[in-house]
UniProtKB/TrEMBL annotation:
This is 3-oxoacyl-[acyl-carrier-protein] synthase 1. Residues 2-420 form the Ketosynthase family 3 (KS3) domain. PROSITE patterns: KS3_2. Its main location: cytoplasm. InterPro entries: Beta-ketoacyl_synthase, Ketoacyl_synth_C, Ketoacyl_synth_N, PKS_Beta-ketoAc_synthase_dom, Thiolase-like. One of its GO terms (cellular component) is cytosol. Its EC number is 2.3.1.41.
Length: 423
């Protein structure tokens, strides 16, 4: 018997807000978190804007002990732990006892973790100071670092792991957690992902010339998904986290249920059929969406909102085309479609989880957040869908089903189907 899976806890560290209440307010108001960074200008980056969460010392001291903060120099660990702990507390779950919670686990992914700690360590090793690395250099830089921190803080005894699938990481983590619960291997899972910020992460993308350089004086205009004037994605960072739980467990403890996870799918285009290391195979994207609908037992016409990957590159129109093909819906029949990246930039491996939090909030509170800077929709997209399907302002609406997808370098895809909970 397959378990129904629901979402009972949320946590977020995003460029436009830290914490779910402020994040909800920010996305409803269409508040941008993209700012100019003098450090990038000093280092001669072409793109000198980015999204860095406004984390304060108070935030850190709320979730870390003084001992844990000593020599902590990994922004991804900070973001991931804050988001994960907020989600756990938001779910109303208890804190650890001496006995591990055998029924709860973690899937918390990342791309590159602890780049600043790694740089610091490399310098010390090269200078013959290996004994001064400290005791946490490894855990701050290993891919499973956030999962390890959180499992210790929460005392969880089920599967503790980390996934890494580039920009699809966060949505894939949610699907992996769902899969573990639906098949009865865990009662609840903390799913999420994070990404560091800074020049050592973002420099490679600047070198690839995929970042916008025209908006250094108007950073809030830089991220332009679905726009004819989009010129690249804005690099960003942060973390998102969601507590997934069997419906029986959630109802047993009378938990708040934000949404139900109906199903999903992950796949790869194998870097064939037009796919490459940096571009998706369109047939694989279509297949991923259709398989997700099939597993969720949802008909294409039931989709109310597409929370797209939509990075603000020339590939946005190709993504719209893939959705049209997968759903067999076009023009006025196409669902509403938006992109959180218009407010927070592209948070890389954290993108999927932060955007999943946004999608769940849309379902739970009944609204569609605006897709900023899309007032001039790309003509290739306008030829496929009614431009009015891209919300320019906040829309209050009781939506039932959201399709959330992300696609990553390496030609990997992840799609999940979320529904407003109905008992």
């Amino acid at each position: 018997m397959r378990n129904r899976v629901v979402i009972t806890g949320l946590g977020v560290v995003a460029p436009n807000a830290v914490g779910v209440p402020l994040f909800l307010e920010a996305i409803q108001q269409g508040r941008s978190g993209i700012t100019f960074h003098q450090e990038l200008a000093d280092l001669k980056f072409s793109c000198q804007v980015g999204g860095i969460p406004p984390v304060t010392d108070a935030h850190k001291h709320q979730y870390f002990s003084d001992l844990q903060l000593h020599q902590l120099n990994s922004s991804g660990v900070v973001y991931g732990v804050i988001a994960g702990m907020e989600a756990w507390q938001n779910a109303g779950l208890s804190m650890p006892t001496d006995e591990p919670d055998w029924e709860s686990g973690i899937v918390f992914g990342t791309g590159i973790l602890g780049i600043d700690k790694l740089r610091e360590s490399i310098y010390k090793v090269d200078q013959g100071q290996v004994r001064r690395l400290g005791s946490t250099a490894v855990v701050q830089t290993m891919t499973s670092g956030v999962s390890a921190y959180l499992s210790g803080m929460l005392g969880l005894g089920n599967q503790i792991t980390a996934n890494s699938s580039a920009c699809a990481t966060g949505t894939e983590a949610l699907w992996l957690a769902y899969d573990r619960i639906v098949n009865g291997h865990a009662k609840r899972m903390l799913a999420g992902s994070c990404n560091d910020h800074g020049p050592y992460i973002w420099g490679g993308f600047d070198a690839m010339r995929v970042l916008p350089y025209q908006y250094n004086n108007t950073p809030e205009k830089a991220s332009r998904p679905l726009s004819a004037t989009a010129s690249g994605f804005v690099p960003a960072s942060g973390a998102g986290a969601l507590v997934l739980e069997s419906l029986a467990s959630a109802q047993e403890r009378n938990a708040t249920i934000y949404a139900e996870v109906l199903g999903g799918h992950v796949n790869s285009g194998g870097q064939r059929g037009g796919g490459s290391m940096t571009a998706p195979n369109a047939a694989a994207v279509k297949r991923c969406i259709q398989k997700a609908l099939e597993q969720a037992n949802v008909r294409p016409k039931e989709i109310d909102v597409i929370d797209g990957h939509l990075t603000a590159t020339i590939k946005d129109s190709a993504e719209v085309s893939a959705w049209c093909e997968a759903l067999n819906r076009r023009g006025d029949d196409f669902p509403m479609i938006n992109s959180l990246k218009s407010m927070v930039g592209h948070c890389l491996s954290a993108a999927g989880s932060i955007e999943c939090v946004g999608a769940v909030l849309e379902l739970h509170h009944g609204f569609i957040y605006p897709s900023l800077n899309s007032e001039d929709p790309h003509p290739d997209s306008s030829a496929l869908i009614n431009p009015e399907k891209i919300p320019q302002q906040l829309i209050h609406k009781d939506i039932q089903v959201v399709a959330k997808a992300n696609f990553g370098f390496g030609d990997v895809n992840a799609c999940v189907i979320l529904k407003k909970f109905q008992s």
